[in-house]
Fold each of these.
Amino acid sequence: MQTYKINAAVNGKTWLTRGTTLKANNESEAINKAKIILRLTDEHEINITPCKVHHIISKLKTDNYPYGRERATAYFSVEMNKKGCRTVFQTINPKTGRLNNPKNSTYYPVILPIELENNFFDFCGYLDFNGTEAINKGLYFMEDFKECFSHQQIKDIALYIISMTKVNAKAQVIYCGTKWDDLKQFYEVPLQNLVKIANGESTDFLSCLLDFDNIEALKVPDFQPFKVVQYS
């Protein structure tokens, strides 16, 4: 299967910009898959680029990175620790031959190094699992690229998704007026399957997808979680 980087935007509506990286047999299949994952509308213009996603421990190197008027060696990698993942970019000073100090990004739960056309390196993922749509987007990503992580990293990521899934359900009850008795039927099986992944019994992330439409339908219209009390 081929790997593709997807960017989708609506002219004049930057808040509707979406993006992901995925696997598909061809561009047509990739576009259809992206429409499902990113919940795209007919307004979205989709840009698709073939790419190659590397293992999280990969350290990508180029000897042709712009460095003032010169060209330098540059390294692109991902550091993963208890705080999550962050990108690491580091160059070699062509005048001294010494490594410059690395430039690190902020932490995200999941980031992977990626190789685009013309030997251009970048990063993908940037998953946060914050909200139903983001959880499902992350689950699709993990299913496509689970071979890019160690077994322990997969279990750790599953534990994080479990925590964010529980937060998501609790937030809907508190801030959207949904009753837990109505909502729990859409969380029980996904959470059970996530526990299996966290325990090393499975790697089937797609079995953990949330039923977005039914979950959204349970939100109470115009619900006001913060009541204003007036005193006479």
Amino acid sequence: MIKAKNNPMTRILIVVAAASCLTLSMASAASASTDTTEPTDPEATHDMGDDTETSVAPGADGSAEPSSPEAAAFCEAELAAEAAANTEDPALMGPAFEAVVAAAPEEISAAAESLVAAAESGDFGPAFEEPYAAVLDYMRANCGYAELNITASEYTFGGLPPDVAAGPTIVSMANIGEEVHEIVIFRINDDVTLTAEELMALPEEEAFSMVTPAGFSFAFPGATGYTVTDFTPGRYVAACFLPEGALPEVMEQMEGPGSSTPPGVELGPPHFTLGMLHEFTVGDGTTTTDTTMEMDMTGSTEAMDDMSATTEVGSETTAAG
């Protein structure tokens, strides 16, 4: 069965042990930018099949241009660093991180240096979270990237549409549930015709030969995790691999890679087997699917049908007269 690369539980435990905090990587950015991550629009919903509608605020559509050539260079460097981090290959991450520092404009230079230093030292506590929040705020204001705002709860992703536009995208995942959640995004290789469910049923090594990591985000309840990815056209799958029962107090008791489940704790199957598995398609359009827009268009179509019916009735009445 496919799992997150190098076992997401191991990655989480490393962070918990090193940072001893309730957030991973980007989580603290939620408090810095609640206007784009707080689910506020009751009409922009995506039903994942559990009869529960989760509202998600629509994000930017990516149509804006970078604020300056300097900003464009930094945004491209940071996007490349995120892609390198997804590979977990030090040979790729080192040069990519250096490029981020070299390209950083003066107003974000200190944050970029602190971010890279924390990442290279393995300190994923506040020393990483705070500069990453500053970098994300800069990117939102200056890169012109699209934003895809998702929620995670038991056991569903909200706000993740079936069709997403291609291009650089800031993906946020607000955990509105009671358990710890993650979103691991893979691009399904072009020559693969299997569904997400079929891929998940394969042996891990075989499954990983058919997908490419595209993003990873993680959050404790009440927090928000982020990832920045460059969506290219194709099929994608998003999943949460954490086990049922992954409550914050359980995670805090897990001391590191290879540690056993705390006494008296029973963990269930992975969240993706309970509903947190979503396949979506990235097209070559310029905007992310907006549920609100779809609803407005549906309403407009119904109104046009009503007008047409009224016109037909009027015409018949006139003819009869």
Amino acid sequence: MKHLSRNRLLRLALWTLAVVALLILFQGAAHRGSEPREPRTAQPASISMDFAMKQLNGEPLRLSDYHGKVIMVDFWASWCPPCREEIPHFVEWQKQYGGEGLQVIGIAMDDYPADAVKAARELGINYPVVEGNDKIASEFGGVYGLPFKLVFGRGGEIVARRRGQAHLPSLERLLRTHLAERLPARKP
């Protein structure tokens, strides 16, 4: 009888350890949040990187053309449901905050530009949309899933990276905070 109690006690202890280990594992995953950190080796883009991108309408676009503005770059695709859910908010923010210095720029990562053109029309996109590809994603320090957003402050520095569907109230607060800041003085 004593031997049976010891086995039960041992099994209970092992089950308890297993449950505690799982709780610790899940708690750690929850604290990382929905926006995983990007690899430290990625080189972030800045507005001083003056590479040209081709818009869906064929016109060139350079980030440096928007110096002094708060820029939100949104990597998206027509086949991405979370991307399509966010875009109407970005359209609204461009209307609401464009006069204050916000510039939203979409980068469509579709394989076929015609798919992006159709989606942009369906969604009523009122901001420039660029044809995305691996080279452009690399210029921005790497894109590791869609949707993916970068926010640049008025001085051209990256102030936020958001992978996955964004918490829209927090993103809007971030944009408003940076819109309220003045452009840093340029060095002569």
Amino acid sequence: MQLKINIMPRPRNHPLFVLLLAGSLASACHASAPPVSPAPAVLPRTGIALYLPLEDNTVLAYNTSNDLNEKGFFAVQVARKPGSLVELRAGAKSQQLTLSANAVRHTSGGFLLKWPVRTGDTFPGEFGLVRVVATDRTAQVPAGSFSGCIETLEGGGAGALQQQSIKMFCPNVGLVSFENTASQGSDVSSQRAELRSYGPKVDVFAEAADLKR
């Protein structure tokens, strides 16, 4: 099932799903986030991989909120595929990205991020034109404080439906927050996600078995 970043102004409970990168969306849940281990040791990274590591079996959990003050969470697991494909999984839903040395592209079309990144640069995104707003932002999210982050703004639409997505990518972490807004006439809705934890996937059953030995 191909996931889109599109957010319909109604109903207000339109599901949120990040795609790591992506600011793509998945249903927010009102329960505890899946366990993740502490953040992995930072390895030297350069270029696009510095801001979107997308390492296999990494889990990123996000707190969510919307303009109705409804709160929840969702988690995304990164799965590396043969070749240049990466699959982002959130429950039963998934989305694929294509990696290259200087870009991360949605397989459905458009870029999530391109390298080199310079303030003012533009490139085609998933639903509109993406502009690099800044490359030196500091992000304060539940997972911590991150500096040297890239902020992008994507805007576009079809007919009366207009959409906007603000994303923040931080070094050695990836997508730490996004805010999506959709408007159709006087009807406006917004949804925000902030990173609450990140790290390697934990197999709680395997760990429990180890403890019993």
